[in-house]
Design goal:
By secondary structure, the protein is of the alpha/beta class. It has helices at residues 36-40, 73-80, 104-109, 127-137, 146-156, 173-186, 203-220, 231-237, 255-260, 265-272, 275-278, 313-317; strands at 21-32, 45-57, 62-66, 88-93, 96-97, 110-113, 191-195, 223-227, 240-245, 248-254, 323-325, 328-333. The strands form two sheets. Strands 6-7-8-3-9-10-12-11 form an eight-stranded mixed sheet, sandwiched between helices. It has a four-stranded antiparallel sheet with strand order 2-1-4-5. The structure holds adenosine-5'-triphosphate (ATP), iron/sulfur cluster and magnesium ion.
């Protein structure tokens, strides 16, 4: 890949030391059973998809967001991207609070790449017209430079110039995801939120797209939040990992710290679900049982207590905060017994959550 002259806004103005993107007590709820009949019967209920998330993303880092299906990862990403209004809480960009209705320039800075590249592209527009429209609407480059900039974007994602005159249906799945990435990069974002960007692709092309994201990060100084079920990929690509459970971040740490010293019982369960990662540990932990509770009925106290093999009476009463380790501010966990030397009395260990790592596990090449 040639050195890009299409930099993301990474080197542009902003606080270099503070977080790039911050979520504080962020919540997103959906009204379910919202038909007239349900409302008349007082059956409308709130589904708490994201429920009090605190998260910071630093400029230039690759942060992984992991957790079981339905834990709220996509909803959180959409809220961060401004595609869903949060019901509660704040989102700040470089320390500046973002309003619910974002300006065009704020929309540009946070872009998403979705799981299914086909449904995220307009099937009736050629790639060239799609990119040109975007560049014009957002005044990214002068009109006279739209063509050359579009060609440059395609080069960045490894596509030939001929792709400009093609429609999405004429590409393979991997190529379509390249187009979707080019479209996101067209707006010169500071941060890319990639929501399972390869899980809809053939295993054979998954690694190439992941490697493309890795290269783009390096070359453009792009900040990346990668949502993935694939912990091997996460370990390979990401600097930090945030673990989500039932709408909330329950552990966050630098990647190697999380893999070598997980503190939350749920995180231990996730890691133990991958035999290659749990192999070699001294204690073989028992299973985390059952399915996660419905986000319509989040348990009182600790939300993980209904599945936690070391739950104590206190866990039913007190909701544990996401607190940092005394000696390691980069590692936080939301468990009353995190960072303690001994587990609570009667505690058993933790094992895998069946199916949590059920996605194909390609190993991106080095
Ligand atoms: N538009 C919506 N209306 C109602 N409920 C929704 C809506 N979008 C998401 N949900 C619910 O919110 C919860 C979180 O969903 P979300 O898609 O964010 O989870 P996820 O972690 O991305 O899951 P997956 O790994 O399967 O993609 C789920 O219970 C889901 O059913
Ligand atoms: S607070 Fe209690 S229930 Fe929650 S994870 Fe820790 S030990 Fe388990
Ligand atoms: Mg999702």
């Amino acid at each position: 890949m040639t050195a890009p002259t299409v930099p993301a806004a990474a080197a542009s103005a902003g606080t270099e030391t503070g977080p790039l993107l911050t979520a504080r007590d962020l919540s997103v709820s959906f009204a379910v059973g919202s038909s007239i009949v349900a409302r008349l019967r007082h059956e409308e209920r709130l589904l708490h998809a994201v429920d009090g998330v605190d998260l910071e993303i630093k400029r230039g880092e690759a942060l992984a967001l992991v957790g079981e299906s339905g834990s709220g990862k996509s909803t959180l990403a959409r809220a961060l991207a401004g595609l869903i209004p949060p019901g509660q809480g704040e989102i700040a960009f470089e320390g500046r609070l973002l309003p619910a209705r974002r300006s065009r320039s704020d929309q540009r800075r946070i872009q998403m790449v979705f799981q299914d590249p086909y449904s995220s592209l307009n099937p009736r527009m050629t790639v060239g017209s799609m990119l040109a429209e975007l560049l014009r609407v957002h005044h990214v480059v002068p009109r006279s430079e739209v063509g050359s900039f579009s060609r440059e974007l395609l080069g960045l994602v490894g596509l030939e110039e001929e792709a400009l005159s093609a429609y999405p249906r004429q590409f393979s799945g991997g190529q379509r995801q390249r187009v979707a990435i080019a479209r996101a990069l067209a707006l010169r974002p500071d941060i890319l939120l990639a929501d399972e960007p390869v899980s809809a692709l053939d295993v054979s092309v998954q690694a190439t797209i992941l490697n493309l994201l890795r290269d783009l990060r390096r070359e453009l100084g792009l900040t990346l939040m990668l949502i993935s079920h694939n912990l091997a990929v996460v370990r390979h690509l990401c600097d930090r990992v945030a673990v989500m459970y039932l709408g909330r971040i329950i552990e966050v740490a630098p990647t190697e710290t999380l893999f070598s010293n997980p503190q939350h019982p749920y995180t231990r369960g996730l890691l133990a679900a991958i035999p290659r990662i749990s192999a070699g540990t001294d204690v073989e932990p028992p299973a985390v049982q059952g399915d996660p509770p419905s986000p319509l009925r989040i348990p009182t106290g600790c939300r993980f207590r209904t599945r936690c093999p070391i739950a104590q009476p206190r866990c039913e009463q007190e909701d544990p905060a996401l607190n940092a380790a005394a000696g390691d501010p980069a590692h936080s966990a939301a468990c009353h017994f995190a960072f303690t030397s001994a587990p609570p009395a009667g505690a058993a260990g933790i094992a895998g959550i069946a199916g949590i790592a059920g996605e194909e596990q390609p190993s991106p090449s080095q």
